[in-house]
Amino acid sequence: MPTLDELLTPRTRDELRQMLLDELARQGFPLTDFVPGSVARHVAVETPALGLEDLWRTIAQIARGGYLSTAQGPWLDLLAEEFFALERKRATFARGRVRLTASPGSGPYNIQPGDLWLGTADGLLYQNTTGGLLQSGGQLDVEVQAESPGSRYNVPAGAISILHTPLPGVSATNPPDWLLEAGRDEETDEELRGRCRTRWAELGGGATRHAYEFWALTAHPAVTKVRVLDDHPRGQGTVDVVVWGEGGLGADVVAQVDAYIQERRPLTANVLVYAATPRVVNVSATIAVRTGHLSAAQSSVVSELSALQREMPIGGTLYRSRLVEALFVRPHVVNVVLSAPSADVALAPTEALVLAPTLTWQEV
């Protein structure tokens, strides 16, 4: 059976131009007058061919926009809202706590919301949203929000250590449990399609695995991954819903998801909602890049590793070949020697992948 793309392959300008020339010849027009660059050729052939090419593309976009498997971008947004009553999840800002420490003899400092800019070594910025009095030789925890939305601001503990706002004698760090709300990227087309497909499952009288997945993904925007254990994990009639978001999920998010699902579950189902356990996988590799391409390669590798972590399902398997593929970004990288992990990593059914890369770079 032909695909929609095959049925809607737009004609090229060359094909349309030839069709016009053929039709003009059939009507008896003297084509020898239509030399390239002539006014007659532009009026009768070139300009109509350009307009028809644009029309073909528009028709193809409209047609693809009517099907869940082919709609993209704004077309998919419109389809999801009109047919599934769903909106794309927008990117959110990471929020968390940073601990300020004043050395003896420094301060006191009366800090107001918005006074401080803090950052990481790779340039990510955060601004404080709460304040307080930092005494000399004391500590103060302030809440901060990322400068921009996205999951890349869900940094590990200790990464926020640069105080861009001068406070003599004051150091900053983010403690292990610093994240209050993880930042997330805007929902991708494939993620939105997945929610649309599971939308129908909640219309039944009971609750299928897809229904639980849809409820969990809809209950809170921070949730990006769901695994439903519906084979009676705690005994007959029990269902476990394991949720995860890039950077982890706080107890408040899990509680919201739990409340949302408990209101909709069948009366006979014993449902337990909890966050996945992070499985930290150390990635050690030596990467050879072309001379002058180091910065571009580093940026591309970070993006590829982030994408790999996002695409890995709860309880999935991290294959070394997929990891090498993420590190071997073209055209910057010429060689990758992966030393860890030494084998494929199979996650437990309730584990979520967290990559911890230690990369050595060489310019060749």
Describe it.
Pfam families: Baseplate_J (PF04865), Baseplate_J_M (PF26078). This is Baseplate J-like protein. Residues 206-274 form the Baseplate J-like central domain. Residues 98-176 form the Baseplate protein J-like barrel domain. The protein is an alpha+beta fold and 364 residues long. It folds into four domains: 4-64, no CATH class; 95-181; 204-275, 2-Layer Sandwich (GMP Synthetase, Chain A, domain 3), CATH 3.30.300; 278-363, no CATH class. It has nine helices and 17 strands. The protein has helices at 4-7, 13-26, 39-64, 73-84, 189-199, 209-219, 251-262, 294-311, 320-327, and strands spanning 95-102, 109-111, 117-119, 125-128, 132-134, 139-146, 162-163, 170-173, 179-181, 225-229, 238-244, 270-275, 277-289, 317-318, 333-340, 345-346, 351-363. Strands 1, 3, 4, 6, 7, 8 and 9 form a seven-stranded antiparallel beta sheet that branches. Strand 10 and strand 11 form a beta hairpin. Helix 5 (189-199) crosses helix 6 and helix 6 (209-219) packs across helix 7 (251-262). It starts with a helix and ends with a strand. The mean pLDDT is 88.
Question: How many strand units?
Answer: 17
**Total domain count:** 4
Shape: globular
Radius of gyration in whole Å, from Cα? 28 Å
Estimate the helix proportion, in percent: 25-40%
**SS-derived structural category:** alpha+beta
Listing every helix as H and every strand as E from the N terminus to the C terminus, the arrangement reads HHHHEEEEEEEEEHHEEHEEHEHEEE
Work out the helix count: 9
Strand content: 25-35%
Between the first and last Cα atoms, what is the distance in angstroms? 49 Å
Domain Baseplate protein J-like barrel: 98-176
Protein name: Baseplate J-like protein
Organism: Thermus brockianus
Domain Baseplate J-like central: 206-274
